[in-house]
Batch of 3 targets.
Target 1
Amino acid sequence: MKSWLWRTAVATVVALSGMGGLTGSAMADPDITITDNSEIAVFLCTPSAYGCHKRYATAKQRRDVETFLKTVPEVTEVRFVSRAASYASFRREFAGQKKVLAAVRAEDMPESFRVRVSGVADRLRIRALANRRPGVGIAVDQAEIRAIVAESESPDISVFLCIKDSAMPACLRGRGKANKLPSTAKEKQAIVAAIERVPGLVSYRYEDQATAYRNFVESYADKKALIEATRLSDMPDSYRLSMRPEADWDSPCRRLARMPGVSMAYDQSRWLQEVRLHAEYGLPDVWPTGMCA
């Protein structure tokens, strides 16, 4: 598959593959964490949530969802989180991030039920049943999200290069004669020079297609369908940057993403933030990718 969406998905999956000890230092950031509990968060409909037909959950739907959750045998606790309480928590957590605060309004925040279950519960079944209830936008298992984050050993910033037949917009225009071609030697030289000037850079390394594909196969060995659908030629070459935790990651990531020969750049701290917005606050327009624009 040569679509832009597939290329983006592959690059994101590659970014989340284990990278031989280059663990993102964002994992130590106390401001970007996943709550340490075993709750399943059931977010109710908002007008922007997929499948909600541009409507909020009604009072009756909210009562029905609560009744359903309380009748599930494995459920030990159900608590309601109002839109106002969730928005206040969001404002406190992201108080220093003006762009994030400006992008989310109080009315965007869904109401939710936070559900605790017994240790023997079939969490996947409970989440699936909740997702099918009228008035539910999405149900998210916090334990599952924590496991995904814990298994992620991405570099702090990943810079993916253009490959042959790429459909990524950045590879198709603005590069002169190199449009639609793999990153040229001249483009790579400029990218390396820019990387070496990044403030807060600890180290970086180059990863070729073969190494990327090997890491990908090892990391997703249990995902046979994904591996079968992905070829070596889908793998982009990349530069993997390790950054100081206190450094500004966003600005250099965005600058590198705009350089000729770069298909996309990925910021681990941005991904963790997006995970938090999606999993803890149920914001429907946020799907974690970590891509810099």
Target 2
Amino acid sequence: LAEDKTLLPFFSNERVIRAAGGAGALSDWLLRHVKSCQWPHGDYHHSETVIHRYGTGAMVLCWHCDNQLRDQTSESLDQLAQQNLAARMIDVIRHAMNGTQERELSLAELCWWAVCHQVADALPESVLRRSLGLPVEKIRSVYRESDIVPGEQTAISILKQRTKNIALPLHVHQQQPPPQEKTLVSIAVDLESPAQYLQRQKPQREEMPVYTRWVKTQKCMTCGNQADDPHHIIGHGLGGMGTKADDLFVIPLCRKCHNELHAGVKDFEEKHGSQLLLLIRFLMHARNSGVLKWKA
């Protein structure tokens, strides 16, 4: 189904995307499943990656390729964005049907998911005809009057008629908000840590995916718009060779401001202030919000 181009209008339909968790869920899915730059045509790839939105889809690009491809359109970008969108939609629907990663999603299951989420009318007519076992509708350049069948039903009308008495799952009639993860990070103080007695401590990078997901939901630190990415502080010695700073050292930035920063750190900090100052302000916000708690 991922290679079936007739399904692309369905996968890219805004109602279908909302039914599958929304556009932001695609970014989260990509961050979990893709660990390197997806652009195959570059000679150089930076170690840091970002989500590059493209139409209704998105892709994972390194900083270098993201700067190179910004505001560009091409058939290759279209194909990559659609490929990611289709893969994520199929994964979501397969999970909803209690299927495993090893099993392929069937067309019948996809259509049943569409019926349950009241987006079956977004399925192309040709796809519905296949799922209902109807003959392929022939497209002719010229129709004779004798070829016209009065009152012939479309595939979607047949599907609606057959499913009108089906009791849909509860979540269709009454949307229940998904359970929120406990966005609380506790920072403990260990006065007996043996590492403090070492002459040279081994660098350890802390990963806090719950915290970075919360950071992404906050307002951009520079313009106040909705953030798009949690930006790890760069250029101040908080990271290592090819390594990001700890997940604690992040600030929320929208895509425009994030691109502006990576285009020139010096110009960005002259305009908006030091990243370290922005980080301290955001850490105070996280602490005052109760998301970060200090434990002595």
Target 3
Amino acid sequence: LNKPSTAPLPDALRMGEIPGVGVHWGLAVGVAACALSWLLIERTRWGFAARIAGGNVRAAQLQGLPVGALVVGFAALGGAFAGLVGLFEVAAVHGAANASLMAGYGYSGILIAFLARHNPLAIIPAAVLVGGLEASGGLVQRRMDLPDATVLVLEGFVFVAILLSETLYGRCRVFAPERWGRA
């Protein structure tokens, strides 16, 4: 008890797969949402104002930008995207809303956002990487008789490796242009 759930969705309301690909339509909608987000952030006044406010709130306020409206607007957009993900999770994967919908997506989302570095188009390969780790994790755990937390440990290694690479890149300057003879 105490595990709320909705009634199963009728088959007519379930989302199908993309023909010939073997994945549901959430993938195509997610890629389109990333592309539209990139256009919004990189090619509109609203996105330009948001980048300024994200870089320096005080400077944005001094320029008269509506920082509060930008925060609320982008938070609403993020909430709309989360709702869209929930729609596909229910209609294409589970068939009903239940407690299994909260399966640690927050941690994965933080890792994907960190890997993407404020670039909506970079979300696509980052999500494929993390999704591939999580999807193959069950198979690896069964075949090699590993504990359930193995996938989380692998994701943690990815996160730490990226943090270390940023630290080392800033200190060692191995890839600095002046080392290649260019200024």
